[in-house]
Write the structure tokens for this entry.
Amino acid sequence: MKLNNKQAGFTLIEILVAVLILAVGLLGFAALQISAVSAGQESYFRSQALIVAESLADRIRANRDYAAWDSRADLTGTGIADQNLYGVPTGTVYTCAAPPVPFCSDDEGTNAATCNEQELAAFDVYQTCLDAQELLQGTPGGRVTVTCNDVDETNAAFNNKPNPYQGVNHPNFLGTPAILNGPDGDACSPGSRYSIFVGWEANSIRQDTGELSQSLSARCQAAPPAGAGFPAGVQCVMLELIP
């Protein structure tokens, strides 16, 4: 009896093609799942970083007298120097290697009401650094940088102005001299815009899949004061305010 060799192996080929199509589909589904997990993780870090940035913005607003202090106004000798701890044009990188002294916390240290504005600023910087480490734990690159776009260099309206502390009876900032003659020489003059950058290491999956360049903000790596000056591969959120 003669067999029909033309039919031999036809079913096996169909099975192999079906398996190949299924394998390609499963690989695509796995890649989609990995991308979704990566995007979800990045979204989480972004929301946590935004919490840190908004908290710092609230601290700066609460200490507005210090953030907006004009160095041409006299002081009562409280130890406040012409040093803006919140931010400078070249960028202030927040560190928490050692707690400030005094430690201006009602719960753990000195009564905050007894601290002057600069001591409160030092505590704000330290606490913000701790917040970034706690909320961005799992991202070894978690960091905070604040830059200041100094308006005094380009805006003559901030020269030769009345002293805003006249008649205020502020405990640290005096109403003398009556007219503040410019230029003030401040690195971050009153009315300047602060840019708060909170950064974290970009997800490694996005680096492996080549999606990193699509997700990074150009201002994260741009030089201060326009950007944060973060190293390559660091993603960030940015929040701007004028105290």
Observations:
- The first helix runs from residue 10 to 62.
- Residues 10-241 form one domain.
- The first strand starts at residue 92 and ends at 93.
